[in-house]
Sequence to fold (250 residues):
Amino acid sequence: MMRQPIIAGNWKMHMTNTEATVFVEQLKTLVANTSCEVVVCPPFTAISTVADLVEDTKVRVGAQNVFHEESGAYTGEVSPSMLTDLGVSYVIVGHSERRSIFKEADRCVNKRVRIVLQHGMSPILCVGESLNQRESGETVAFIHSQLEMGLHGVPAEEMTEVVIAYEPIWAIGTGRTATAEQAGEVCQSIREKIATMYTPEIAEQVRILYGGSVKPENAKDILAQTHVDGALVGGASLEAESFTGIIEAC
Fold:
């Protein structure tokens, strides 16, 4: 089964509306002929601007997070309906920075996965191990546990809308990168786990991304791995040329 590759850019806390406009105008031209699915995830403040700019292009819009309630007295939070109203297609859920800095537990991550699906968007569920866990040989067991908790209650008929992003914590923003083989092995184990949780047929349809210091220089080898269906890109997604270089590698 052919899975359309996704290259998603997580801008994190970067880019004003003005900066986002300049970037997206460049990007639209550079990716006009790509066969990959291109997603940009700006800060909440720039989503509306970016969504307007990419209308009728190959670029889709994602959000970096969402709250797990429809509405209410949750100062500073953003609801799923607020995102769908802006044309958001994807939502990053459970990024390691949200888990570590903002203490978002697996239970909260799971609620967000499910509410994103309920609103017709696709969650990009992030999983990944620390350096200590990798060196202790706990990588696969830990990631499988994250999958079990993050996907709890997700019905089989919705699972193909879920995207999984494997991001080893020790390789995010550190300049260190898992080898292509390491990325491929973990992504294969993720697919095998989904097959046991659902069915092999569903597992073959789920797209699995790698994230962690992905650059144009290493993208080709990583994306050549059988079970790697794209990349969740951080720093390299902030410059149109470097982001396009990764897209071209896929």
User: Anything to note?
Assistant: The chain has a mean pLDDT of 96. The two ends are 17 Å apart (CA to CA).
